[in-house]
Design goal:
The structure is a single chain. This protein is α/β, with parallel strands linked by helices. The protein folds into three domains: 202 residues, FAD/NAD(P)-binding domain, CATH 3.50.50; 124 residues, FAD/NAD(P)-binding domain (3-Layer(bba) Sandwich), CATH 3.50.50; 91 residues, Immunoglobulin-like, CATH 2.60.40. The chain has nine helices and 26 strands. Strands 1, 2, 3, 4, 5, 6 and 18 form a seven-stranded mixed β-sheet that branches. Strands 9-16-10-11-12 form a five-stranded parallel β-sheet. The protein has a five-stranded mixed β-sheet with strand order 21-19-26-23-24, with no helix packed on it. Strand 14 and strand 15 form a beta hairpin. Helix 1 runs parallel beside helix 3, helix 1 packs parallel to helix 9 and helix 5 packs parallel to helix 6. The longest helix has 19 residues. The protein is globular. Bound molecules: flavin-adenine dinucleotide (FAD). The site of flavin-adenine dinucleotide has 37 residues, from helix 1, strand 4, strand 7, helix 5 and helix 6.
Length: 419
């Protein structure tokens, strides 16, 4: 374990009220709101050369409708978020990679000038997601060049101004696969098909209209069996309704396989949830037994930037309440997930309710397969919240949390009763 010591030993720490780790939409919106609420000194530590997070690499529309009431390209959106945080008085430090976080707010980070230390009253983790190499794990056949995850494609297209292929197949149909589609359009790349193993798109159902509008065949219920090609992709073998056929293509964009970028939380010994693989928080965004909070995509993999921006804003209120001693006792207990299709719940820990407005008014859940039924949050054998569900895997499902919860009334369990 590499946790930052809270003993005060080591380099002299600079003081701050709130340190935010990660300058993407969630961290930037939290910073602006914290400053607006009078939280004091707010410092964002961002490992890249520029703050803005993933939208910096998404040179396509549409970003910013919820936040700025207009439709922006990703980089313009990122610049606006950075501008708003700076204007509010946040101190944004780039090329600053956080390496350890102590439970009592000691933050260690590296910069081109050397290692630095901050001592904060509260720390907010907003480190987003990372893409796992799904390409090497899922696809059989030869392993030619030209197979890229979306993030790498966006780096090549938007940052380097290059076109890695001209006729790729897009594999997957969640939110980020559509970002890949828009990236191709921007670069003049013409995908030859969008292939989804499920019957419906993983993103919202109407999203299938986008490939159709762009003249890209959308093949649902179709699996990629093999990729053929020596130096580069030449052919993609697909399986649909028991029939095998092949598509001539010169590349593959593999979407999905995202994980919370929770490395620093893990190495610092902060509580991590086995379901979401992100920091385990309560409804106020608090990580157990610490002055640390978490927000945005680090909580559970990919949501839209607008969603993460809004989460960042809401956790800012909880942080200010914590600094002012207005949050209820951190006595949360874990929400046990019963047998069935639910893979994760955020927040995965519930503390006493209070007058303080929670950062999360709902439990967010996801399933690992299509399922229909009723989801119930139980405590001591009683249903304290429930809703009917008819969902595909990986879609966001929300269950409103009751306001007057108390863990002392018994353990929480999440049950899925299939119809
Ligand atoms: C490839 C891809 C394409 C996407 N396309 C879209 C899209 O078109 N539209 C959409 O709405 N959403 C899209 N998303 C979802 C996207 O993640 C959200 O839009 C949004 O960026 C999430 O905000 P965030 O602040 O939680 O995380 P991020 O934007 O990921 O920001 C996290 C920041 O933390 C920094 N960081 C990480 N670790 C450290 C550390 N140890 N120290 C310091 N800094 C650190 C990172 O450098 C990064 O800047 C896409 C996601 C991916 C992966």
């Amino acid at each position: 374990m590499n946790a930052a010591s809270d003993t005060g030993k080591g380099p002299q720490a600079e003081r701050a009220d709130v340190v935010i780790v990660g300058g993407g939409p969630a961290g930037l919106s939290a910073a602006r709101e914290l400053r607006r609420l009078g939280a004091g000194t707010v410092i964002i530590l961002e490992r890249d050369r520029e703050a803005g997070g993933i939208p910096r690499h998404c040179g396509h529309y549409p970003f910013g409708m919820r936040e700025f009431k207009r439709v922006l390209r990703g980089p313009d959106y990122a610049r606006r978020l950075v501008g708003a945080a700076r204007k509010a008085g946040a101190d944004i430090r780039t090329q600053s990679t956080v390496t350890a976080i102590g439970r009592q707010g000691r933050v260690e980070y590296t910069t081109p000038e050397g290692p630095m230390v901050l001592q904060a009253r509260a720390v907010l983790l907003a480190t987003g997601v990372r893409e796992t190499s799904r390409a090497s794990r899922l696809i059989g056949g030869e392993k030619p060049g030209g197979i890229l995850p979306t993030g790498a494609l966006q780096g090549i297209v938007y940052l380097n101004g290059e076109r890695p292929f001209s006729r790729p197949v897009i594999l997957g149909s969640e939110l980020v696969a559509f970002s890949a589609l828009m990236t191709c359009r921007h670069a003049g790349i013409r995908p030859v098909a969008m292939v989804e193993p499920g019957v419906r798109p993983s993103a919202f159902s109407l999203s299938r209209l986008l490939p159709l509008a762009m003249g890209v065949p959308y093949l649902s219920g179709t699996a990629v069996q093999a990729v053929l090609g020596r130096e580069r992709v030449e052919e993609v073998v697909i399986l649909h309704d028991g029939d095998t056929s092949s598509i001539v293509a010169d590349g593959i964009i593999v979407s999905g396989g995202f994980r919370p970028e929770a490395t620093v939380a893990v190495t610092s010994g902060l509580a991590v949830d086995p379901g979401s693989r992100g920091p385990q928080i309560d409804q106020f965004g608090r990580i157990e037994d610490s002055v640390c909070f978490a927000t945005g995509n680090v909580l559970r993999g990919v949501e839209t930037s607008g969603w993460c921006w809004s989460e960042g804003r809401r956790v800012a209120h909880a942080i200010v309440a914590a600094i002012r001693g207005q949050l209820p006792e951190d006595n949360g207990t874990t929400v046990q997930i019963g047998e069935g299709p639910i893979t994760l719940a955020v927040p995965a820990r519930l503390s006493n309710g209070s007058d303080a407005v929670p950062a999360h008014t709902h439990l967010q859940m996801r399933l690992d397969r299509p399922a229909r039924g009723v989801v119930q949050l139980m405590q001591a054998g009683k249903v304290i919240a429930s809703r009917s569900v008819n969902s595909l895997p990986d879609r966001r499902i929300l269950l409103r949390l009751p306001g007057n919860m108390s863990p002392t009334n018994g353990a929480f369990e999440l049950v899925f009763r299939e119809a």
